[in-house]
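Ticket reopened. Same input as before:
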Amino acid sequence: MDPQAKTRLREIIAVELQVPTDKVRSGLSLRKHLGMDSVAALNILFAAEETFGIHVPEGELEHVDEIDAIMALIERYRAAPTAGAAASRRS
Amino acid sequence: MRRVVITGLGCVTPCGTGAEQLWSAIVAGKSGIKPVTSFNPAGCASRVAGEILDFRPEDFLARREIQAFSRYLHFGVAAARMAWEDAGQPTCLDSERVGICVGSALGAGSRIVSDAMIFAEKGLERVHPMLPLQYGGSLPSEIAITLGFRGPAYAVSTACTAGADAAGLAFAQIASGVLDGALVGGSDAPVFPLIFAAFDRLQVLSRLNDPPERASRPFSRERNGFVLSEGAGMLMLEAEDVARARGARIYAELAGFGATTDAFHHLHPAPDGEQGTRAVMLALEHAGVAPEDVDYVNAHGTSTSKNDVTETIIMKKVFGTGAYRVPISSSKSMLGHLIGAAAAIELIISVLAIRDCVVPPTINLTEPDPACDLDYVTDGARPAVLRTVLSTSFGFGSRNAALVVRAAAN
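Engineering reply: fixed in the latest deploy. New output:
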């Protein structure tokens, strides 16, 4: 996992959910513990796409609720944009 | 009907952020107009604007709100927070009886345009999910969320009279007992390439670019258009009995409001000034004052060829020969035209004129238009006993609005 990318993602989440960055920890549910609602999820995804130059197909974020899971999504689409999409369609 | 008083002021303008900074600049006759710098106005005949280059949204909003919303909202929330703080943050008011009414012309237009340009360049995948929330009503909603008001929250889209209309509508709600208080005013962020160019193509912007601080010349012979500006002005209104019960500092009474429509033209005022006159008379009647009781008129005074001469006609119809005695000045000579925010900022100026007993000047008027022959206060700010002030606004779409502000009873 790219630590700088994770730091950047942590900041994106912290700004959107209006919490200190140190509250965005591995293992915490963004929805249950940090109050991420549907609009916030969309904004986090959009900001992540802008920051990392990726596009994540609609619906992918419904299945993720923790920073590590979002990071894995980002790394999958960074590595191979179309393969990442294909993997999503297969799963 | 309850009396309505003004208890808080807040603003972001090309002449300063905060009511006292604005007022100091206005009294000193200091222009906030400069060459356009946030984009290249090449191809436009007008090259000047009232841009706000030193505004820090992070002083008033969280990063999330700054990123998610428009400059119109940033200005408006900042001004609202200032007015609320200036009123003493009266959380003793019943939040369900405090409303919001803000005016704007463009609303969140700058954000919609920039998102549209990204869409045109990068396609569907880069359409922002917050785009549907970029509308005029986003500002009153954000103020309500920020300050916890639970009364009705409206946005009024009446262009140059919007700030006055917003104040007038909330005034009625408080006077009739529907509300105890309201944050009112206006915000506009129209200084961006598309809209600047569009106003320029409509040939309504001043082409007197050099020097920029002399581009806005209300009532003068050589005037040829207004200067486009941005910003916001907000005022806290309260029922007088509620304000006095909580020991509020009361600036002045909002005593009268009148609004009419010319039903004439989308851009030009009706040359006979009949409905503009009627708006003023309605406001005076509402306030229970006669024209000769008015001590000062803060004019609309845009520096366009048609407004200034029509406004002069209206002043003569309202005041008769008294039009030659009442001082009349245009703050737009220094601020330019903040469109939906203009009337709110001019209401703030009218309030402070009463507080300090100073008539603010019109600057840049060295050669008057012969058709504009009244006392426009060209000799600098003038001390005067001010008890009753009239503020006029005449806007795109043939509309007219007038507000009467009065010194509060002791």
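The first strand of chain B starts at residue 4 and ends at 13. Chain B touches chain A at residues 62-64, 67-68, 125-126, 128-130 (CB under 8 Å). Please confirm and we'll close it.
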